[in-house]
Target: TonB system biopolymer transport component
Amino acid sequence: MTFTPLNKLTKALVVGLSLSTVTAAAQEQQLDDVVKAGSDINQSANRSQQRIDKMNDQVVDKLQTYKALNKEIDGLTVYNQQMQAQLDNQLIELQQLGQSIEQVSIIERQISPLMARMITTLDTFVSLDVPFLPEERQHRLADLKGMMERSDVSTSEKFRRVLEAYQVEVDYGRTIEAYQGEIDIDGTPMNVDFLRIGRVSFLYQSRDGLQLGQWDQASQSWQKLPASYRTSVNKALRIARKQLAPDLITVPVNLAKSAAE
Model:
């Protein structure tokens, strides 16, 4: 086949266009590759940044945890120092308590005989005292004596009750009291009203108010009183029963007892 110059030119153009197309396609492919590579790089960078951010968050969390633990350690250090100081003080107190227990054991061995002597002394005092409330006072003494033999009552409770009994007897000496009872007058039992004014005057009056008497400590017997005391004794009885306000009263006084005191 014979080509004309025009055909050659056309062929050249076609070849040139084909080469341009191939070159453009190659460039476009390269551009796509570059874009894809850039996209891959960006994605990789994004993933790397995410990992960095995550690691940074972890580092921040660890740092905050570290700081919190340091504060807690500081607090525990102070707390341990305080507990150690308290423990040292408790050890000292424990040692002192041990010494006190030893002393208490010694005192307890000594206090039991003391209480026994105190009860005996109180018994003797009551038997020699003005004979008011005999049943009540003897019952109190019997309770104290029985209590001393009991193992279920602590030594401190025993001592408290002995002191309480002494306090009751002390109070009798500074109070006024009226109560009912029975006495034997000339061989005849008689219901009477008793009047106790401290320990300086112990009187009785019959229920009908006709008979009056005073306890004489020296003779250990009842002595009759004249009727002139009736009004004063009635007034004193009402004051003792809180039926009248406290006031001056005139009653006979056991002078022999007062002199002995």
Observations:
- The helical segments are 5-128, 134-148, 155-172, 230-240, 255-260.
- Residues 257-261 have pLDDT under 50 and may be disordered.
